[in-house]
Amino acid sequence: MIPNTNYNNLKESYLFYHIAQKTKLYLEEHPEAHLYRMGIGDVSLPLCGEVIKALHKAVDDQGEKSRFHGYMPECGDPELRKIIAEYYKKRGVGLSQEEVFISSGASDELGDILDLFGRDKTVMIMEPAYPAYVDANIIAGNKIIHIPSGEKEGFLPLPNESVTADVIYICSPNNPTGAVFNYDKLKQWVDYANRTDAVLLFDAAYEAFIEDEDVPHSIFEIEGAKNCAIEICSLSKTAGFTGTRLGYTVIPGALKRNGMSLNEMWIRNRTTKTNGVSYIIQKGGAAVFTEEGQRQIRERIQVYKNNAKVLMDALDQLGIWYCGGKNAPYIWMKCPNGMGSWEFFDYLLHEIQVVGTPGEGFGACGEGYFRFSTFGSPEDTKEAAGRLVKLLAR
Ligand code: PLP
User: Fold this and answer.
1) What is the domain extent for residue 136?
2) How far is the CA of 205 from the centre of ligand 1 (A)?
3) Whose CA is nearest to atom 5 of ligand 1?
4) What is the pLDDT of residues 52-102, one digit of tens each?
5) What integer pLDDT is reported at residue 41 of this predicted model?
6) Both 347 and 236 in a single domain?
7) Whose CA is nearest to atom 3 of ligand 1?
8) 170 lines ligand 1 (CB under 6 A)
9) Residues with pLDDT less than 50, the chain
10) Confidence at residue 11, expressed as pLDDT on a 0 to 100 scale
């Protein structure tokens, strides 16, 4: 038996392991300490009432012969696909329900979608990046072109005509930097992809956090994107579905390469590799898109946005450079006094018991930067921001 030897090329996923080890050791040495955990990428607020009501009803349906559902359609419940197509319509993006696929979340899709491109492809990944992009492509044996970015361009790299790839990842709002591409910048990527025959994989997991008018929520708000892009989205951060699991992927009918329709290929892929997402979860997901569901999820997102404001105010007060926070649940700050990412991590842990994420863990160009998540509790966020100001103003 010959295993997939590409696994040997994976770097040890040390980031969160290393953070866990360091905090564990600190707590062993200081058992009385309370840690302010500003590193978590998971939500802390529960599902909203509308979703819970829909989930309960769907559970009851499964216990009644006349309302019971077995296997669900592989590409998703047609009703939910229609609801999501309507959601796009409100933003001026016309989609047919057949262009929307229901998934168990963005992570699953980001890995599975590589099936559309075959092996030995070249992919472009802008860094700092969500680590799963890199690892999924290493496992698939693809060649990765790492595109580093920095403060100069606000961590928003633009296309360079001399570098081409088959597949290009774009994450906006970005994890970890919180940076967002506006219409103009995104149009440059769409035009470049259409010129070079590349496919854009647009990760819109944080679209619900966008508040600026000039920032598109969907790549399909950009003219020409239906010929070159796939959008992957999730209810994880939008509606607290990290543990409930539901997402959606849009593959336009117009997206073709070598005469093959990627939408038709994905139908074939899903009917081969899945038996659909749970009926109960899809009913819970549908409740997110009702008027009351939208109102309730907005309330929760606002709590995280208030956390972001508290942290941004602290950094403004200190005169520290950062991006993100306004249209994203992450704040990406420059470590003060030329400190390295891990050095700053240790400093915050030991001096003020605040835990964040060292930027270096998201790619080499993240060295010297640090990520704060805004998904913690308002109380802890306020205390952490206050401690940060006291420490760094010294
Ligand atoms: N994409 C990005 C950029 C993320 O940050 C995350 C989760 O943190 C995901 C995708 C995965 O989302 P899901 O929970 O839907 O798998």
Assistant:
1) 49-290
2) 6
3) 175
4) 999 999 999 999 999 999 999 999 999 999 999 999 999 999 999 999 999
5) 84
6) no
7) 175
8) no
9) none
10) 85
Whether 4 maps to a domain, the answer reads: no
Neighbours of 209 (CB within 10 A): 24
Whether 6 maps to a domain, the answer reads no
DSSP string, 236-301: HHHHS-TTT--EEEE--TT-EETTEEHHHHHHHHHHHH-----HHHHHHHHHHTSHHHHHHHHHHH
- H helix count then E strand count, the chain: 12, 15
User: Pairing state of beta strands 330-334 and 322-324?
Assistant: antiparallel
Q: Are residues 63 and 140 in the same domain?
A: yes
The C-alpha angle with vertex 276 and arms to 273 and 279, in degrees rounded to 5, equals 165
Locate 206 and state its tokens.
Answer: 């944080």
DSSP code, position 335: P
CA angle 301–306–308, rounded 5-degree value: 95
Task: Judge if 248 and 229 occupy the same domain.
Answer: yes
Phi then psi for 241, rounded to 5 degrees? -90, 20
Of the candidates 225, 256, 290, which is a domain's last residue?
290
Task: Sort strands 357-358 and 369-373 into parallel, antiparallel or unpaired.
Answer: antiparallel
Pick the last residue of a domain from 237, 263, 290. 290
Mutating to test ligand 1, I would choose from 207, 236, 249, 304 the residue with most ligand atoms within 8 A of its C-beta, which is 236
Q: Is 184 part of a structural domain of the chain?
A: yes
Closest CA to 302 of 40, 41, 45, 50: 45
Separation CA 387–CA 357 (nearest Å): 17
Structure confidence by residue, pLDDT tens digits, 130-154: 989 999 999 999 999 999 999 999 9
Does ligand 1 come within 6 angstroms of the Cβ of 175?
Answer: yes
Ligand 1 in contact with 41 (CB < 6 A)? yes
Residue 122 pairs in a beta bridge with 143
> What is the per-residue pLDDT for 14?
75
